[in-house]
Amino acid sequence: MEYSILAESFKKMESTRKRLELTQFLVELFEKTPHEVISKITYLLQGKLRPDFEGIEIGIAEKLAIKAISKSSGIAIKKIEEEYVKGGDLGHAAAIILEQKTQTTFLMENITVERVYETLFKIAKLEGSGSQDMKIKYISSLLNDANPLEASFILKILLGTLRLGVAENTVMDALAIAYSGSKENRKILENAYNVSSDLGKVAETIATKGIEGIEKFQIKLFSPIRPMLADRVKSEKEVIEKMGKEFAIEYKLDGERVQIHIENEKIELFSRSLEKISNYYPDIIEKIPKIIQAENAILEAEIVAINENTGAFLPFQELMHRRRKYKIEKAVSEYPITVNFFDILYCNGKNCTELSYSERRSKLENIVKENEFAKYIPMIKAKNENEIAEFFENSINAGSEGLMLKMLDKPYQAGSRGSHWLKLKREYRNELGDSLDLVVIGGFFGKGRRTGSYGTLLLATYDENTDTFPSICKVGTGFTDESLDQLYQILNPKITIKKNPRINSEMEPEIWFEPELVIEIIASEITLSPIHRAARDEIRKDAGLALRFPKFTGKIRVEKIAEDASTNEEVISLYKGQNKSAHNKNLM
Ligand code: ATP
User: Fold this and answer.
1) How far, in Å, from the CA of 79 to the mean position of ligand 1?
2) How many angstroms separate the first and last alpha carbons of the chain?
3) % of the chain with per-residue pLDDT over 90
4) pLDDT tens, 149-161?
5) DSSP character string of 26-69
6) Measuring CA to CA, how many Å separate 277 from each of 85, 254, 270, 303?
7) Mind giving me the DSSP string for 500-569?
8) Most CB within 10 Å of its CB: which of 108, 181, 363, 459?
């Protein structure tokens, strides 16, 4: 397939933010796409080469891209940099530069999607000495044969700045229309995506096997399943109202969620955001296969740091020490853990997600042999508020965050947050009703004791509709010397000279960061704000929402990506909830 078709399509998509138009452009693109390249096109659309869980990163540095543009065009690096500074987008700058190319290639070939994809793949795989030069060579060879529009999109993919605004759901709408004639079939596609986390595979299946193929889509070992999530509730009373009849209650442990895929001796661990985390937990890799009594299985558990002497649960932050590349053995012995199982999604070649909670829990207990290292999460069945309150207390005393409440007769709903699982946390009883997970977008240097660190951070929510990060508050409290230090180390590599275009902030920090790191914040109240951009115009025209007295809880949410941060909708619902309770108080 000619790459120009894709580049033209990208250009059209970039020109709109309207979902219906985007869907239409995608349908037109899919209709021109041969089946052999549909998966590649689907990954490229999202600026990727493979599904996220395979961990293939394309990202090249701007400097390297500039060198490649210079090599291909014969134009000086300085001139390219000037063009870049003028427009703020290197892909766009490359298009302008290549228009003025001084070196002409006489034998320009048409480039194909296959060639672009294979070359990008080779670039992503290169490492070690000499790899920089090879990368420049590969990029400039593509640019030599590309027209300016094609070149600009090749660079955007390479730099990770392709932002077409196509959410997964929009891609699935378009696939359903293009290959089954009806958007209604999106739901069936969603099921396939939820159990595979691989949109390219879903696209290929519907293109080659139609909707019937999608209906038969199977869970595959070592392809992670998108996790089921819980709705929050504020009180025992609300739990009873929502559950209606007897339900299961489990401790909500304060650790890291892990999805364990295992077949004989092969084992792989995936985080909540479906990143491979096997390297951080060699103890799990070694010990878990010995206690699983099945040929293969997909299990879910919470990894919790423990005090070695007492066995007590320690807070989530302790697990941070495991997130390192080197000297992992030392971290394993210094920061011991337990693995606490709570679900089973696949067993002996069979899908278990369609079984009820009760059936899954008993299967889990049949298959996992408990020992000191691996346990089942504590669970009871309950019907009334008193039982919840008592178990809640036990859970908090054991060092947990609260409770998870699960309907006994319901299946595992991959990839959805719904009312079949509820969560009741300790801080839901505080002033705001919940903590928020916010993205760090900017920093202000510390003064006095905090010199050499970022004393204050600028934070944002995630706006799903526009795929941007609007500011919501500055936070300067709740930091310890240790956490300031840790944040400084983590944030430094994320510094950018220019504000990332996805950041929506009127407030100018001293330093901008790439919107990647998520931290947990509590606050006393949500107020209307003329400065901050979160949920702007939603409650009142020209006003956004801001947090009052925000405080860092000490939790750096390494297991969350920026798009998992609290959304504008969540903040709006907390804002409305808080006003309702204030109203009720006034009435009393
Ligand atoms: P939170 O910010 O509360 O951790 P979340 O957005 O990560 O929430 P939720 O569905 O809201 O996800 O809460 C479930 C999370 O709680 C899981 O991701 C998991 O890490 C953790 N957890 C602890 N104990 C349990 C349990 N018994 N069952 C399911 N999840 C549990």
Assistant:
1) 51
2) 69
3) 63
4) 999 999 999 988 8
5) HHHHHHT--GGGHHHHHHHHTT-SS-GGG-------HHHHHHHH
6) 38, 18, 6, 12
7) -TTEE-SS--SEEE-TT-EEEEE-SEEEEESS--TTTTTSSTT-EEEEES-EEEEEE-TT--GGGSPBHH
8) 459
- Identify the pLDDT of residue 449: 57
Protein residue closest via CA to atom 31 of ligand 1: 252
Domains and CATH numbers, the chain: 48-159 (1.10.3260.10), 229-429 (3.30.470.30), 436-585 (2.40.50.140)
Concatenated DSSP letters for 8-29?
HHHHHHHT---HHHHHHHHHHH
pLDDT band for position 583 (cuts 50, 70, 90): very low
Contact predicate 425/252, CB 8 Å: yes
Q: CA dihedral defined by 253, 416, 520, 546, rounded to 10 degrees?
A: -150
CB 93, CB 80: distance < 8 Å: yes
253 lines ligand 1 (CB under 6 A): yes
Q: In this predicted structure, what is the pLDDT of residue 105?
A: 55
Mutual orientation of helices 199-215 and 186-196 as an angle, nearest 10°?
120
Q: How buried is residue 457: exposed, middle or buried, by Cβ count under 10 Å (0-12/13-18/19+)? A: buried
200's tokens: 């390219």
Burial of 159 from C-beta contacts in 10 A (0-12 / 13-18 / 19+):
buried
252 is catalytic: yes
Q: How far is CA 118 from the centre of its chain?
A: 26
Average pLDDT score over residue span 382-392: 92
Answer whether residue 237 shows pLDDT above 50. Answer: yes
What pLDDT is attached to residue 312? 86
Query: Which uninterrupted H or E stretch holds 430?
Result: none
Ligand 1: which atom is nearest the Cα of residue 230? 10
Q: For 439-464, write each residue's pLDDT tens digit.
A: 999 998 876 656 678 889 999 999 98
Q: Which band of pLDDT confidence, cut at 50, 70 and 90, is reported for residue 433?
A: low
Which of 225, 337, 423 should be mutated for ligand 1, with most atoms under 8 A from CB?
A: 423
Paired tokens of 92: 């766009």
